[in-house]
């Protein structure tokens, strides 16, 4: 099944090549979770703060569906 993923800020380096804009289209097996997707991409889970699927906060156990749009954000620091 086909999904789209965007990794933000410091997480962008885990997509090859990094894709600005709408994100990167990926083929994933049915039953893939957010956790499984991130592990497949080599994203360290301790670097993930927020996951959005189709604009809604999602848990790592969320099972992805055809055409889902996934956004992954690291912790934000600054001041």
Describe what this molecule looks like in 3D:
The protein has 79 residues and is mostly beta strands. The chain has a single domain, classed as Ubiquitin-like (UB roll), CATH 3.10.20.30. Helices cover 10% and strands 27% of the residues. The protein contains 1 helix and 5 strands, in the order ββαβββ. Strands 2-1-5-3-4 form a 5-stranded mixed beta sheet, with no helix packed on it. Strand 3 and strand 4 form a beta hairpin. The model has no long low-confidence stretch (mean pLDDT 92).
CATH topology (level 3) name: Ubiquitin-like (UB roll)
Q: Count the helices. How many?
A: 1
What is the total domain count? 1
> Which structural class is indicated by helix and strand composition?
mainly beta
Q: Kindly estimate the percentage of residues that lie in beta strands according to DSSP.
A: 25-35%
What layout of secondary structure does this protein have?
Elements: E1 2-7, E2 24-27, H1 34-41, E3 50-53, E4 56-57, E5 69-73
Parallel strand pairs: 1-5
Antiparallel strand pairs: 1-2, 3-4, 3-5
């Amino acid at each position: 099944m086909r999904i789209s993923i965007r990794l933000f800020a410091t997480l962008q380096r885990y997509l090859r090549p990094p894709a600005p804009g709408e994100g990167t289209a990926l083929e994933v097996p049915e039953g893939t979770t957010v956790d499984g997707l991130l592990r497949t991409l080599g994203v360290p889970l301790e670097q993930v703060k927020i996951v959005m699927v189709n604009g809604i906060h999602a848990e790592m156990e969320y099972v992805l569906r055809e055409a889902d749009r996934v956004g992954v954000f690291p912790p934000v620091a600054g001041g």
